[in-house]
Design brief:
heterodimer, A: mainly alpha, 2 strands, globular, B: alpha/beta, Rossmann fold, 3 domains, six-stranded mixed sheet, four-stranded antiparallel sheet, 13 helices, 17 strands, about 20% strand
Chain lengths: ~375, ~425
């Protein structure tokens, strides 16, 4: 073996063949269908917004690469993913400056000032979204109706959640369910959703509002990437199959939220307990995008499965509080950021169970013998 | 349907690559021109040399004397002469004195016919095992006579035989189970006589169905009181802690031995060595080594005299088909990469592999993204990412406080790390520096 090419290194000599880059690109792939749906229903401008967000994120990362340690972190796909998520969290009619500011804030302030990939303590894309959300409240609350609801005025509509919140704020709920409130305000729904809803009512005897059906398939006003719950879930399943995310965070989050929303959600509408329409809540707003793609961000979530469940339950709790009792219609991003803050603490105190701590059983047997 | 158990916590599923060599019958490596027999082939203190340069030796003659309680005797594998005593570095970086033995040209090999051994008492058997220098051949090379000496007041509930061979590529134990089934079982029965267990279990991973079948047949026809338990394939099931969890559902507490939970664990190669030691009075002077890896021209299972140089094994397999990226002694998950093909096969050498480097192994290190895969993969319930960070910052005492010593360097964390951090390397370093 006179050839010095032979590598001598510490074991193990095999690898599962995953890399940070492969994870980032896989998440981007999983987001693509929902993003494309956004482009389809909101038109070409949505695509432009996505491209601007992505380009800004990658460009800022590239500039920081040159300025900083000169590593080539743009190739790991994390900046692309951040940009994509920022774009998906924008209304299609946002001024182009808004995604530029959000992406730049996400990469520069949230990610790099804390030390770059792996060192940030809140999800950059989320922080970028929240930053512009509070900075440009008006711009960020102007949505257009999707193409599939094209019968109505396209620009300047409110989301389902905003309508409900406004109605509650005006005291105009009068014991109506969420769907009832929407019907009262004349909120539109697709013919398809109407027929699915009545089929459920007649065949199965289950009351499923057409708004829920529309929210599930993405025929609602909202941010570009958040509207199609169906495609987001499909993307999430892809990630689960590829073992990039586990069920722990999304399931505990959504289950906690649903439970609380069902229990207490109706109270806000003057309906009493066990009357909350949690299904509509689940499929509207940033719930699905947040649960499957934001809360599961590896850097800002706990490392143990037990910790992940606690994290998810916490998000569910805060999301419930903010959605039903907060002044803003949106809640998920704030809830996730709130729980991001707890992650170091969760990781400090929630430790995996050490192998071999239990000696009781054999001791007993020895005593018997 | 038979329920197929495994251990619960952690573990990974690397491609087992057994198919490369599991169809190859065991062949005998011809006596090499020169043997290098180190005095430290086992866990514990090196043996004391009993011979000098120029002495002639007989096959099976004791040439190194165990020097402390945890140590083992060394024997000459051949008839021949000691040409030299020199310092060698083994694959696992141990530096030790070694005899250089030139085998007799005419008649190098010893002859060990079977002798009656039924009448031997357990103590006599144990003494023979000690005398024959038997150590665990799975890789840890713990002296077998120490392991089998059950202290007064302790009883053995289960004798668990390790037929798992969970390291990818390795098929030496698999072939032994298939080809020497009866002798392996007789070795197990000898241990049963010594340790008096209430039950005997052989755990075999389910990727060796033919071995499970053969074992069961031979056990039935001899009515041995042995159960064969198929196990779900998962690395590192061949570790005694995981094996006991999988087979008898007991967890060895940190820092304790199998005996503390009433179990004795023994591997297949060791059982065979015990049979040879007790029935043939033959010392541990040869073993089965798998020669495999994508870069090896042919894949073999070789019966090799201890002290044979790795180069001899590779030459017998037809050399390497192309320059490999790595040579490994042992399995790819816990084995040692080496660069010098003049190193000898020792008692713990289970495989010699020539690997094309996994392209993933060449990937650059990136920052930890706290994905938690190492935590999920760790069979010991540790947090490799945190330990690594502490060790990286030279906080060895803190790492010790987080149970660093529980780490057995199985490699599951590094294997699953998407950031390609050298986690195991860090653990090894931290243990060494933390002990000081």
């Amino acid at each position: 073996m006179d050839v010095p090419k032979t590598i001598v290194s510490s074991s193990p000599h095999l690898h599962a063949r995953s890399s940070t880059a492969s994870i980032m690109w896989d998440v981007s792939i999983a987001l693509t269908p929902a993003a494309l749906w956004g482009v389809y229903v909101f038109g070409f401008r949505a695509l432009a917004i996505l491209l601007v967000s992505i380009a800004t994120a990658v460009l800022v990362e590239y500039l920081l690469n040159m300025k900083g340690n000169n590593s080539k972190t743009i190739l790991d796909g994390s900046a692309f993913l951040t940009g994509l998520l920022v774009g998906m969290n924008m209304p299609a009619d946002a001024a182009f400056a808004v995604p530029v500011i959000a992406s730049a804030f996400a990469i520069f302030v949230v990610k790099w000032t804390f030390g770059g990939l792996g060192a940030n303590w809140v999800n950059p894309a989320l922080a970028g979204r929240v930053f512009v959300f509070f900075s440009f409240t008006g711009l960020m609350n102007t949505y257009r109706m999707p193409r599939t609801l094209a019968t109505v005025d396209a620009v300047g509509s409110a989301t389902v959640l905003t309508e409900i919140k406004l109605a509650i704020g005006d005291g105009a709920v009068n014991g109506l369910s969420s769907a009832g409130v929407l019907a009262e305000t004349g909120y539109p729904f697709t013919g398809f959703a109407g027929s699915v809803s009545s089929w459920f009512q007649q065949t199965l005897g289950i009351g499923l509002s057409p708004y829920t059906v529309d929210a599930f398939f993405g025929n609602i006003a909202g941010c570009i990437g958040e509207v199609s719950a169906f495609l987001l879930i499909a993307g999430a399943l892809y990630l689960m199959v590829k073992k990039i995310i586990t069920w722990h965070i999304p399931v505990s989050f959504l289950a906690t939220f649903s439970m609380l929303a069902w229990l207490f959600g109706g109270v806000r509408n003057g309906l009493g307990l066990f009357q909350g329409d949690f299904v509509l809540q689940l499929f509207s707003g940033g719930m699905m995008l947040g649960a499957f793609f934001m809360a599961t961000d590896m850097v800002t979530s706990p490392t143990t499965h037990k910790g992940m469940v606690i994290f998810g339950v916490g998000i569910g709790f805060f999301a419930f509080l903010l959605r039903f009792f907060g002044s803003l219609p949106e809640s998920v991003s704030l809830a996730i950021i709130l729980m991001n803050i707890f992650v170091p603490m969760i990781d400090r105190y929630i430790l995996p169970k050490r192998f071999g701590e239990t000696i009781k059983e054999p001791k007993k047997q020895e005593a018997k013998a | 349907m038979e329920r197929i158990p495994t251990f619960r916590k952690g573990g990974v599923h690397p491609d087992d690559k057994k198919v490369l060599s599991n169809g190859m019958a065991i062949e005998r490596l011809p006596v090499p021109a020169e043997l290098i027999v180190p005095l430290s082939q086992h866990l514990g203190a090196p043996a004391t040399p009993l011979k000098q340069k120029g002495d002639t030796v007989v096959a099976g003659e004791k040439i190194g004397q165990a020097s402390s309680f945890i140590s083992a005797d060394i024997h000459s594998p051949v008839n021949g002469a000691i040409a030299d005593i020199k310092k060698v570095t083994l694959a696992n970086s141990v530096v030790t004195e070694a005899f250089v033995i030139v085998p007799d040209a005419e008649n190098p090999l010893g002859n060990w016919p079977e002798q009656p051994y039924d009448m031997l008492s357990p103590q006599e058997m144990l003494a023979i095992i000690k005398d024959m220098g038997v150590v665990g051949t799975g890789g840890a090379t713990f002296p077998t006579h120490v392991k089998l000496a059950v202290p007064k007041g302790k009883s053995v509930d289960a004798l668990v035989v390790n037929g798992v061979e969970c390291e990818p590529y390795l098929t030496a134990d698999h072939r032994l189970m298939l080809e020497q089934t009866d002798l392996v079982l007789r070795g197990i029965m000898i241990v049963a006589k010594i340790t008096q267990p209430k039950r005997i279990i052989i755990g075999v991973e389910n990727n060796k169905k033919d071995a499970i079948e053969t074992l069961r047949q031979v056990i039935a026809s001899n009515s041995y009181p042995i159960t064969v338990t198929p196990l779900k394939v998962k690395y590192p099931q061949g570790d005694e802690k995981q094996l006991l969890k999988a087979t008898i559902n007991r967890e060895i507490p940190s820092g304790k031995l199998p005996l503390d939970v009433g179990a004795v664990v023994l591997n297949i190669g060791t059982s065979f060595a015990i049979y040879e030691a007790v029935a043939l009075r033959k010392p541990l002077v040869e073993r089965v080594v798998t020669v495999s890896g994508e870069a090896m021209s042919t894949k073999r299972n070789l019966r090799v005299l201890l002290g044979s140089k790795v180069a001899d094994l590779i030459a017998f397999a037809g050399g390497v088909a192309h320059e490999p990226d790595k040579y490994i002694s042992g399995g790819p998950m816990m084995g040692f990469a080496f660069h010098d093909d003049q190193i000898p096969v020792i008692k713990g050498t289970s495989g010699i592999l020539a690997l094309d480097n996994d392209p993933a192994m060449k990937a650059p290190q990136t920052p930890c993204i706290s994905c938690g895969r190492c935590v999920a993969a760790c069979p010991m319930g540790l947090q490799p990412t945190k330990l690594f960070r502490l060790i990286d910052n030279r906080m060895y005492a803190d790492a010790m406080g987080m149970n660093l010593m529980d780490c057995k360097e199985c490699g599951c964390c590094s294997y699953s790390c998407p950031a390609h951090l050298p986690l195991v390397h860090g653990m090894k370093l931290g243990k060494r520096l933390g002990r000081k």
